[in-house]
Write a structure and sequence with these properties.
The protein has one domain: OB fold (Dihydrolipoamide Acetyltransferase, E2P) (Beta Barrel), CATH 2.40.50.180. The protein is built from 4 helices and 11 strands, in the order E-E-E-E-E-H-E-H-H-E-E-E-E-E-H. It has a 6-stranded mixed beta sheet, with no helix packed on it. A 5-stranded mixed beta sheet has the order 3-6-7-5-4, with no helix packed on it. The longest helix has 6 residues.
Length: 158
C-alpha cells in the first residue's frame, strides 16, 4: 500500500477503511443474497451479477465488530479476480487474490481518495476493536483515521 495510490473508502462496523481502487471491479447497492447454509461465518451468501455467481463476504467477524444484522442496509464492493489483475498487467496485486469473483459487504461507500504521502504510516499495535492483522497501513484523511486494508490477507482462509 503505497502513498499516492487511490483508495476506495468505505465504512465497516463504524470504522473507515480503504482499499486500492485497482482491486475494485465495481460497487453495487440494493442486492439480495441467497444464503449458503454450510458456509463459514464470513460468507453472507451468493448473488447473480449479470449471469455470474458472486460470493459475498462479510469481513465484520474477521476484522472486528461482529456480524451484520440480517436485513441491515449494505453495499457491496466487487473485487477483481487474480486472473483479471494479471491480464491487466497488475501481477503485483494478483498474488493472494481469489480466482473467483467475490464481493465485500460494507456498511457504506465513501469517495475515492488519494492520501498525502506524509499522512500514510504503519498501523499502530492497538486499533480500537479492529484486528490489525488485516490492516496494511493507516492514513489521516480530513481528521479521520482510514485503515488501508490488506485485502489478500483478509480474504485468506483461516
Amino acid at each position: 500500500m503505497a502513498p499516492g495510490n487511490l483508495y476506495l473508502s468505505f465504512e465497516l462496523n463504524g470504522n473507515l477503511f480503504g482499499i486500492d481502487v485497482l482491486l475494485v471491479r465495481e460497487v453495487i447497492h440494493d442486492f439480495e443474497a441467497t444464503p449458503v447454509e454450510t458456509a463459514t461465518d464470513i460468507v453472507r451468501g451468493l448473488i447473480n451479477l449479470r449471469g455470474q455467481l458472486v460470493t459475498l463476504l462479510d469481513l465484520g467477524p474477521r476484522i472486528g465488530g461482529g456480524e451484520r444484522a440480517p436485513g441491515a442496509a449494505a453495499h457491496c464492493v466487487i473485487l477483481k479476480t487474480s486472473t483479471e489483475l494479471a491480464a491487466a498487467g497488475r501481477s503485483e496485486f494478483a498474488a493472494g487474490m481469489p480466482e473467483e469473483t467475490v464481493g465485500l459487504v460494507v456498511d457504506g461507500i465513501g469517495d475515492v481518495v488519494a492520501p498525502a504521502a506524509e499522512s500514510v504510516g504503519p498501523a499502530p499495535a492497538n486499533l480500537a476493536g479492529v484486528n490489525e492483522e488485516y490492516v496494511a497501513a493507516v492514513a489521516l484523511l480530513e481528521g479521520k483515521l482510514m485503515m488501508l486494508m490488506d485485502v489478500s490477507r483478509a480474504l485468506a482462509p483461516e
